[in-house]
Specification:
The complex is a heterodimer.
Chain A lengths: L1 H4 L3 H9 L5 H14 L6 E4 L1 H16 L10 E5 L26 H8 L3 E6 L38 H8 L5 E6 L5 H7 L2 E4 L19 E6 L2 H11 L29 E5 L9 H16 L3 E5 L7 H16 L18 H12 L2 H14 L4 H22 L5 E5 L15 H5 L6 H5 L4 E8 L5 E8 L4 H15 L11
Parallel strand pairs in A: 2-3, 7-8, 7-9
Antiparallel strand pairs in A: 1-3, 4-6, 5-6, 5-10, 9-11, 10-11
Helix pairs in contact in A: 3-4, 6-7, 10-12, 10-13
Chain B lengths: L4 H10 L6 H18 L34 H4 L6 E2 L2 E2 L7
Antiparallel strand pairs in B: 1-2
Classes of the chains: A alpha/beta, B mainly alpha.
Chain lengths: 492, 95
């Protein structure tokens, strides 16, 4: 069945359309692949029976002549999306046994388009992390290994399970969410494509909230085309999310014309940071060359407040998280501890036991920066700097159509590394966080290998709600890079 | 900004997160490092810059103030650790 799991999503779709395979066949092959990939720990919950039922329904739907854009395609769903009747954990102990009685809008949109649920993928607890190591359900192994070195590596995070599952050929695509880089950085670490759309493009309704002014869902796949197909199904206006934009969703696949002649691409000089590995700098230069050869005009730009993006993020995101996570109190869902004491004691015991170390750190930082006497000095200061960062991008986009940068400052690192140094871990997101703060779309595409044989990604950023340009340039870059390397571990 | 053990205990209490006393000192060190690193924002002049409220410039949508949903307490309390008669059950709060 290896052939079926090795297809791209677009190829599978075309075979289904021609009647050369069925969703049943495709889904069975992927269920076997999910099982074979259990050593990676990419899934928190597998849903094989549901997958088979959905596949059967999808095959019927196709026969009836009403196939959706993801009709019959088996995918992984990050376990941050609420799925009706299916355990939803956010990789946290505190959500033990939570079976939502409703469906998130993004997952609902995908089922309506015909997608099939293989299972819920692992992630950092409440999507807080860049390694997937903070999951209550254990870390995820990256299917890639350094050449000649068998030590396990992280898949990045927070959407690490989704990235590993797609890279290992367990799923044709998977959903992610990106608050500061949680789609793009794991895509880079696992050699796949990950797209964070503009804030407001996908509904946040039914996604377990981390930092509401930053959270955005997006697709992860093995090609730019696959992510373009997925985003079309995921996106759309939703009255249940007041920040969801009421604008038509374009056919993103149609944007992949391969033509970027005369397009202007900016190279932000502030992204050349101290201590960046030479191979990443070289890959970036190579990316510039590829775009020039395709007829784009590349020019240096300045995003002067780049340096301040990470500290700004680490005020705003924890502040929002500390209020969003107030709802986990042992009353409405999941874990309850200390029920013999007073109500306050129960809250404290439940939250003390239910949250992991990184989540606690962020709740405490958030509580601190929002507390009386510090609100202005930290939280309001960060919101002002956020305005400056957004202005930097607005000024740059008067001159250029898209921006090219590396996705992450390193390739995948070892499981357990950087765990005792929160700030070193936070630096993973140095190139992804600025666009998150400005709400802008970005994509990571696999562009080359490190000297150790690990995938490295390049990131393209676009203007608000201009995902089409991002996809178009990404398609050209993908074609030029011709990334064909495969991970050490393949599911089938 | 340096955070001491007592401050950790105070914010943990505000956040209703139990942090055992033997872990407070280590956490104080970690939080101090993070806050010290965040402190670099103070070197920026943000005089006259409006704090960002929304990344996408849009009018907050309004709708008619009417009931559009509800009437299913069992569904709402389905995931509660303890519920009875359509209500959440909590430890006694009034003597």
């Amino acid at each position: 069945m290896a052939e079926l799991t090795d297809l791209t999503l677009a190829e599978a779709r075309d075979l289904l359309a021609k009647g050369e395979t069925s969703s049943k066949e495709l889904t069975e092959a992927h269920i076997a692949a999910v099982e074979a990939a259990r050593p990676l720990n990419a899934f928190i919950t597998e849903t094989p029976e549901k997958a088979l039922a959905m596949a059967a329904a999808s095959d019927k739907q196709r026969k009836a002549g009403t196939a959706g854009v993801l009709e019959g395609i088996p995918i992984g769903m990050k376990d941050l999306f609420c799925t009706e009747g299916v355990l939803t954990t956010a990789a946290s102990h505190i959500l033990d046994g939570f079976h939502p009685t409703y469906e998130s809008t993004v997952s609902r949109n995908m089922w309506d388009a015909g997608a099939v649920l293989l299972g819920k993928t692992n992630l950092d607890e409440f999507a807080m992390g860049s390694s997937n190591m903070t999951s209550f359900y254990g870390g995820v192994e990256n299917p890639w290994r350094r050449s000649g070195d068998n030590r396990p590596l992280v898949p990045g995070g927070s959407s690490g399970g989704s990235a590993a599952a797609v890279a290992a050929r367990c799923a044709l695509g998977a959903t992610g969410t990106d608050t500061g880089g949680s789609i793009r950085q794991p895509a880079s670490f696992c050699g796949i494509v990950g797209m964070k759309p503009t804030y407001g493009r996908c509904s946040r309704w039914g996604i377990v909230a981390f930092a509401s002014s930053l959270d955005q869902a997006g697709p992860m796949g093995r090609t730019v085309r696959d992510t373009a197909i997925m985003l079309r199904a995921m996106a759309g206006h939703d009255p249940k999310d007041s920040t969801s934009v009421d604008a038509p969703v374009p056919d993103y696949e149609a944007a992949l014309t391969g033509n970027i002649k005369g397009m202007k691409i900016g190279i932000p000089k502030e992204y050349r940071i101290d201590g960046m590995p030479v191979e990443i700098d070289q890959l970036w230069l190579q990316g510039i060359k590829w775009l020039e050869e395709a007829g784009a005009k590349v020019e240096e730009i300045s995003l002067p407040h780049t340096h301040y993006a990470l500290p700004t993020y680490y005020i705003i995101a924890p502040a929002e998280a500390s209020s969003n996570l107030a709802r986990y109190d042992g009353v409405r869902y999941g874990l309850r501890e200390g029920a013999d004491g007073t109500l306050d004691e129960m809250y404290e015991a439940t939250r003390g036991k239910g949250f992991g170390d990184e989540v606690k750190r962020r709740i405490l930082i958030g509580t601190y920066v929002l507390s009386a006497g510090y609100y202005d000095a930290y939280y309001n200061k960060a919101r002002r700097v956020r305005s400056l960062i957004a202005r930097d991008f607005a000024a740059a986009y008067k001159k250029v159509d898209a921006i090219l940068t590396p996705t992450a400052p390193s390739a995948a690192f070892g499981m357990g590394d950087k765990m005792d140094d929160p700030i070193a871990m936070y630096l993973n997101d140095v190139f992804t966080v600025p666009a998150s703060l400005a709400g802008l779309p970005g994509i990571s595409i696999p562009a080359g290998l490190s000297k150790d044989g690990l995938p490295l990604g390049l990131q393209l950023l676009g203007k608000a709600f201009d995902e089409e340009t991002v996809f178009r340039v990404a398609g050209v870059l993908e074609e030029a890079a011709g990334f064909e390397a495969r991970p050490a571990f393949l599911a089938a | 900004m340096s955070v001491d053990k007592d401050t950790v205990a105070k914010i943990a209490r505000l956040a209703r997160v139990r942090v055992d006393e033997d872990k407070q000192a280590a956490l104080a060190g970690e939080l101090s490092n993070i806050l010290g690193w965040i402190e670099q924002l103070s070197e920026l002049d943000t005089e006259g810059v409006e704090p960002m409220t929304s990344v996408v410039s849009m009018q907050l949508p309004l709708r008619a103030d009417e009931v559009t949903d509800g009437g299913y307490p069992d569904k709402v309390t389905a995931n509660a650790p303890e519920a009875a008669h359509g209500f959440y059950a909590v430890p006694k709060v009034v003597e």
